[in-house]
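Annex B, item 7. Sequence and structure tokens for protein A, then protein B.
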Amino acid sequence: MTTHSREPGTPPGTAVPLSADERAAVTALAAGHTIAGAAKLLGQHYRTVNNRVARVNQRLGFHRTVLTVARCVAGGAIDTAEITRDVTLPLPELSAEQLAVMTALAGHDSAQAADLLSIPERKVKETAREVGRLLRTRTRGHTLAVLLTTGTIPATAALPRPSVANAGAAA
């Protein structure tokens, strides 16, 4: 399976292949495990899993693993069966504000999402935690993976787009 690259100088839409080990690590993170939890689940050393995830982050051009997880889920690069296994379906209905925040977080970090939505970063983080509690997910990456997998937020939210800083410079 592949997902799309954001690597500088790489043409848009270029696929970045994930090795089986990288796919397993990112899938574990999407299912709500921490790096340590993923390492234990996969029977591997923490550093091994951390390095694999770091390589995927680097290839996709992200500094935050949660964005890598969202991109891999949205791009179909990982098996999504594990993601919703421990989540009660159908999902509870989310407010328009919750959906807007989570959609912004699928492709941006908290500060960028706050700028994009013109709300305080603290509100973005509070809303993300609130949605996580509602869905009974374990991590923000798991929350986004569930929302992307179920189609609650569109997969396009996690696809490449100009960053907030670059968008202002281009205008």
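Protein B:
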Amino acid sequence: VQGQATDIDIQAKEILRMREELNRILVYHTGQLMEKIEKDTDRDFFMTAEQAKDYRIVDAVISTKPTTRPVTQESALTAVVTSK
């Protein structure tokens, strides 16, 4: 039983270490205070795309799909020929 308790203790400490490291990364990249990050990451924290932008987790929210065509071998060859 002692071996299992030791293993659980080691895993718990590693989880806490990883959580602290993730929180430091989030503080660095979002500019939020550590206390806010700790509170927000303690449990599930759902947000909309706009809220994620305001929180500075994402840089931008894309509202429409880009209108690009898939590149085929034929269209790539045409582009090379016409660019000469």
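Comment on protein B: The longest helix spans residues 2-30.
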